[in-house]
Amino acid sequence: MADLNKVFLIGRLTHDPELRYTPSGAPVSDLRLATSRVFTTKEGDRREDTLYIDVSVWNRQAENCCQYLKKGSQIHVEGHLRMDSWEDRNSGEKRTKIRVEGERIQFLDTRRGGDDQGGGPPRSDVEYDEPPARRAPSGGGGGEPRGGANGSGPRPYAPPPRRPAAGSEEPADEDIPF
To answer: Which superfamily does 7-38+45-112+119-146 belong to?
Structure first.
């Protein structure tokens, strides 16, 4: 059986995203996401369990997140888990941490009237994919909002055109009643 490392999360940002650059010049932003799970205990008490998750986003996607998102923004993250390891400066011990490498971030907040400043907030139907440099070549427009002015992104399903059965006559354009 094949392995699978895929994560889907919905939550709210715990702080404003900040943009930084790697030594090679690639933009990166580390987002902190809070996700909550509500459940009922055996005793019938309603409880809420909140989990804080670190998410890294890269390139154009990182720039878009920093431009449009702020503390409290609700997002959907699609990505994979990644293990970071380092040596602690104080104790010299080896440390590890699991984080999410964001492959696609969807902004879920709806537009609010009056509080937009500079370019407006994201729409709930806009997704920002990673640019081609960070994903396998697919020939897509990469990095632009889906459904944007350049027409990049997947198209809605359209059934193939119907062809008349063999031997049937196709009506002339003038015979169509609409």
So the answer is: Nucleic acid-binding proteins (2.40.50.140)
